[in-house]
Amino acid sequence: MALDLSALAFAIVDIVGVLGILVWHVQGKHRPTARLIVQILFFATMTATFLSQGILPFRVTTAEIEGLTAYLGKSARVLWWVHLAWATIGFVRLYIALDRRPQEARLIQDLIVAGVYLGVALSIIGFVFGAPIGTLVATSGVVAIILGLALQNTLGDLFSGVALTLGRPFTIGDWIQLGDGTEGRVIQNNWRSTQILTPAHNVVVLPNSALAKLSLTNLTRPDESHLVVLAIRIAADRQPSAIEAILVSALEDCRFIVQEPKPVVAFKGIDAIAIDVELLFRVTSPANRVPARNEIIDVVSQQCATQGLGFAMPAQAYLVVPSLGDKMEKSGSVGGLPCAL
Fold this sequence. Notes:
The structure is a single chain. The chain is of the alpha+beta class. It has helices at residues 2-27, 32-52, 68-95, 102-128, 133-150, 152-167, 208-213, 240-252, 289-307, 324-331; strands at 175-178, 183-189, 193-197, 203-207, 216-218, 226-235, 264-270, 274-283, 333-334, 337-338. The strands form 3 sheets. A 5-stranded antiparallel sheet has the order 4-3-2-1-5. Strands 6-8-7 form a 3-stranded antiparallel sheet. The chain has a two-stranded antiparallel ribbon with strand order 9-10. Strand 1 (175-178) and strand 2 form a beta hairpin. The longest helix has 28 residues, at 68-95. The protein is rod-shaped, with a radius of gyration of 38 Å. The model is unreliable at 333-341 (pLDDT under 50).
């Protein structure tokens, strides 16, 4: 009679477990709180049914080794462990969160969920089917070493992705510049790779292991305003103060640059020919550097032409003037006499 009651208890647990799975799917992902409450209710009902007959869900007795009771007992215990995993995962998804850091919270949740599934799988194999977990773990360790060597690059990308996610050097939408010269806006970031949309409208896919080794400058933080420096050389035929006033007036007429903080005209050097000047200004976004630079070159050129301000040649350029001897040699005469060739 006790065996019949055990079989009946197992059958009830099987039915409740299957109903719990159906209700769990009907609830959907958009109602996590209701889904967790229903999951806990079904799990509690299954546990109460086990305990009412003195049955431990994590231990198989000798009376359940064969026959219908054995099949019902194994299926009931598997469903009990599955519902335990789902209730735990529902709690993790709902209550484990980092303040204003959804990406990091999702990563921690995924790691915990993976650990829960692994623990439940080992528990089912050991407690329900009676397999030696110690031998299985040792064997799986050897297999894990082999797989780790085979998937070394993939695992490197995976752990680098975890480090980048926790460190948060950038987020989706940030404009970054890498040490190898790659620059653009981050459009996607996962555990395997990071995708960057470059100014040329190309998508660069970087493995996370390679990205973690490069120096990275986040041009979006603390804000997207970006400093641009434009070097010019002005002929040294005016006072520096007059040149500064003309260039400041030109910068104030530009609409692609930020006027607060105000752009700066910085003198870098002077010689007998020219004054080296740097125009320092900010743009609202790194993407606006090209139109802002083009506008400033156009406005400064017009302003200098209007004010009679000339540009000087680069310091590396030399003007070669033919010597008197070269001129005489070309004309074929020296002091009015023909030159002997």
